[in-house]
Specification:
- The structure holds 2 protein chains of 2 kinds.
- In chain A, about 25% of the residues are buried.
- The radius of gyration of chain A is 17 Å and the shape is elongated.
- Chain A is mostly helical.
- Helices cover about 25% and strands about 25% of the residues of chain B.
- In chain B, the strands form 10 sheets. Chain B has an 8-stranded mixed β-sheet with strand order 4-36-27-3-26-11-12-25, sandwiched between helices. Chain B has a 5-stranded antiparallel β-sheet with strand order 15-16-17-18-19, with no helix packed on it.
- In chain B, strand 15 and strand 16 form a beta hairpin.
- In chain B, helix 10 runs antiparallel to helix 11 and helix 11 runs antiparallel to helix 12.
- Chain B is globular and about 70 Å long.
- The relative contact order of chain B is 0.16.
- The chains are: A mainly alpha, B alpha+beta.
């Protein structure tokens, strides 16, 4: 999900049918969402974090927070 | 249809369609003419700018636009066929969701009983009224996400305004991520991004309007929270809560003043005014120029001219009279970057004092909907279309400037005027959409009810001039319901709902301080207090930490970067300990600040549960997570007074703050003993259009007495 152009990857048929079952059982709204979630978790381990100051600066002004 | 607009000078449907068509053509022509226009340049606040100005992009854009234009009649014909199919099994022709954020069930019921809300009472008598169960935590981003998707937080991934980085423990906005462009061309000090920075909605699952769209049933979604950035679907959408300002923050006001310049605000900025012979001069700070090394802040100079007691704002070649105590209209601000691309914003000004000191308030710089620097609508031109049709409007997620009132930069009357001005903009949008929506879904959320209760709760039941401000607001919302009724015929379903209720916020609970006092959180060198964002926390000995408004986390080994608590037995033991001990917390007067502590895994099931706080805190009425604790600060005391104007809140046990649900359709008699939940609205919408709600949804369709089919069928 996001405001970026998506890419397509190929998954073998038998794996895809398993993915669909697991996604449905897990409460995902689609197999795509499941695949995206699994990949995000792995990528997050390597991802470069943005600067601390930048992250905190963006929260400025949110009424609920000081 | 006889509409509320009958006899008024408002656009006819034909004119709206003509404006819309013309607008698309103009957008196309403009994109082809200006290489720096929205088609080819992307300017994003704070996080980065991207510039896609290559010749290849220009050619591709031209061809795609031309093709799109030529194929338009065929696409329209295909869409008409799909729509006819989509409504084949529908029980209604349209559904209207009117969201009144934070409308409290108890107060609504009392005012209805007193005869002060005749339109809501009439709707309840004609159809039905129920209290609406909210989410845990009872927070707008969480509850409105559940409204949209029909699932609990563990399936839509929004548990609070904030979540945390598992690496740095720092807070981040839970709903959206704005990243940096991956490829950047460096020429000397210039930094030219060659790709768009990723902007990602973190809400998962699927909103019901997307599912309807796939069946050819279109929707118009106006300012429903957690819709930034907008996602593609068959319909129109204007983004809401968590849409940033042009600086990339959640709303930073400015005050320009002749007073002591070094005074600072927690969530705004104070800037000096320089004396001139004819008045004063100042500088507006805008977004950073990410096209240049070091990202310097872009600035716009302005002057306040004083002539025979009259004040005038001179800004970028424009002149605007300033009247003490009166807001200006939206003033356009154009920040020019090092490479010539412009970031378009707009702000309103208010002269708050003139003698002996002069102070000028400036609202947060909203993204200009006519030239949006970030995507704020779907289709992308919809935001500009609305601005052209109805006049420009606030685009910031939480547009009412609560911090300016908290910090005294504006007073209560000025805050109210601002809130109702924004309300008027929203109402115009909503009424226009009511006029133009013949079929499908129209959902619009008004924030006025939430913001006014946050800021005026302390005045309830006092002799203050603002003692009736909240009650008056409820009456205004009731009048709005009255304006909707003429658009609701027998083929339409109307739902008026709120996402949560409200109560007082008198005392704050710093969960981090409690965790420290009970040996779950440790600071370096034996310190008792920390800075914000866990500065000084010794993670190697810390087993639990709190961030945000809803709950707190365990420091889990293998999940958090410096986690020490093992999953399984150790986690379960700590859970039991904390739930027992924290529930026994007492205030100085012996009262219980906390009604219940919940292990989140006992509340929800779903794939994103691991992102959730491990505990949810059900505060009692009068209490909330403290200001300091919410941003990861360990303060000296566990309990402290809330001194701010922000004196009402809803971040308490959800059982204490149910929302409201009114409908023109009767609730089924057998359902009368059960409180419907906000998760039930999405499956209800699907079922009313004859679609089977998908298995992943947690909500259940609400059933209604009476015939389901359209009278015409």
């Amino acid at each position: 999900m996001g405001w970026t152009m998506g890419s397509t990857i190929k998954i073998k048929k038998d794996l895809w049918s398993k993915v669909k079952k697991v996604a449905a059982a897990g409460g995902y709204s689609s197999p795509d969402e499941f695949v995206e979630h699994v990949l995000e978790r792995e990528v997050a381990k390597l991802d470069d974090a943005q600067s601390d100051e930048e992250i905190v600066r963006r929260l400025k002004g949110l009424g609920y927070l000081d | 249809m006889i509409g509320f607009y009958a006899g008024k000078d408002l656009p006819s449907r034909a004119r709206q369609q003509a404006v819309f068509g013309l607008f698309v053509l103009l957008a196309l022509a403009s994109a082809l003419r200006h290489p720096h226009s929205a088609q080819f340049a992307y300017i994003g606040p704070g996080a980065g700018f991207a510039f896609l100005g290559s010749f290849l992009t220009l050619v591709a854009g031209f061809i795609l636009s031309l093709l799109s234009f030529l194929l338009w009649p065929f696409r329209m014909a295909w869409r008409a066929v799909r729509r006819r199919k989509g409504f084949r099994h529908a029980h209604v022709r349209k559904i209207i969701f009117l969201g009144l954020d934070g409308l409290d069930a108890r107060l609504t019921e009392r005012l209805m009983a007193e005869g002060k809300l005749p339109n809501l009472a009439g709707l309840a008598a004609e159809g039905g009224y129920r209290r609406l169960r909210t989410t845990c935590p009872a927070l707008s981003p969480v509850a409105w996400s559940t409204f949209a998707t029909g699932v609990g937080p563990a399936k839509h991934n929004i548990f609070d305004f904030l979540d945390r980085s598992l690496k740095s423990y720092l807070p981040q906005l839970s709903s959206a991520r704005v990243g940096k462009a991956e490829r950047v061309l460096r020429i000397g000090r210039l930094r030219i991004p060659l790709s768009r920075p990723p902007i990602e909605l973190r809400q998962k699952s699927q909103p019901f309007w997307k599912i309807l769209g796939e069946q050819g049933i279109g929707s118009t979604i106006l300012r429903v929270p957690i819709t930034f950035p907008p996602e593609k679907f068959d319909g129109k959408l204007l983004s809401a809560m968590c849409t940033p300002d042009l600086k990339g923050t959640q709303g930073s006001f400015s005050q320009f003043t002749t007073r002591v310049a070094k005074a600072t605000y927690e969530n705004g900025s104070r800037y000096p005014l320089r004396p001139l012979a004819e008045g004063f001069a100042g500088e507006i700070e805008g977004p950073q120029d990410t096209f240049i090394e070091g990202h310097p802040v872009l600035r716009i100079p302005f002057r306040v001219i004083i002539d025979k007691g009259a004040f005038e704002l001179r800004l970028q070649g424009t002149r605007c009279p300033l009247y003490p105590g009166e807001y200006t209209g939206w003033q356009r601000l154009s920040f020019r970057t090092a490479i010539g691309a412009k970031a378009a914003g707009m702000a309103r000004f208010l002269l708050t004092e003139t003698e002996p000191e002069l102070s000028l308030y400036m609202s947060p710089i909203n993204i200009d909907p006519e030239r949006p620097a970030l995507p704020i609508s779907h289709p992308s031109y919809y935001a500009a279309y609305l601005a052209n049709l109805l006049g420009t409007y606030a685009t910031l997620g939480m547009a009412e400037d609560t911090w300016a009132l908290n910090e005294g930069a504006i007073d209560e009357d000025a805050f109210l005027r601002q809130a109702y001005d924004i309300y008027a903009e929203r109402e115009a949008m909503f009424l226009e959409a009511l006029e133009s929506t013949r079929r499908g879904v129209l959902a619009c959320v008004f924030d006025t009810s939430d913001r006014i209760q946050h800021m005026f709760y302390r005045r309830l039941g006092t002799s203050d001039p603002h003692a009736r401000t909240i009650e008056d607001m409820y009456c205004r919302m009731d009048e709005l319901v009255g304006k909707v009724r003429p658009f609701v015929d027998r083929d339409a379903a109307l739902f008026v709902l709120s996402d949560h209720g409200f109560c007082a916020f008198r005392r704050g609970v710093n969960i981090n301080a409690w965790l420290r006092d009970n040996g779950y959180l440790h600071l370096h060198n034996g310190a008792r207090e920390s800075g914000s964002f866990f500065e000084g926390v010794d993670w190697s000995r810390t087993r639990a930490y709190a961030l945000g408004l809803g709950g707190f986390y365990l420091n889990i080994r293998g999940r958090e970067a410096q986690g020490i608590v093992a999953r399984g037995q150790e986690t379960e033991q700590i859970e039991r300990e904390i739930i027992d001990k924290l529930g026994a917390l007492r205030d100085n007067d012996g009262g219980a600040p906390i009604r219940a502590v919940y292990a989140t895994r006992s509340l929800y099931h779903g794939p994103y549960l691991d992102q959730a706080p491990d505990f949810m805190v059900g505060y009692n009425e009068g209490y909330r997570a403290s200001w300091d604790g919410a941003v990861g600060k360990v303060s000296a005391q566990v309990l402290e007074d809330n001194p701010k104007a922000w004196s009402g809140d809803h971040c308490v046990d959800p059982a204490l703050v149910p929302g409201v649900l009114f409908s023109n359709r009767k609730f089924e008699a057998s359902d009368s003993g059960n409180e419907p939940g906000i998760e039930d609205l999405a499956p209800t919408a699907l079922q009313l259009f004859g679609l089977q709600p998908p298995a992943w949804m947690d909500g259940k369709p609400l059933l209604w007495d009476g015939p389901w089919d359209l009278p015409s069928k």
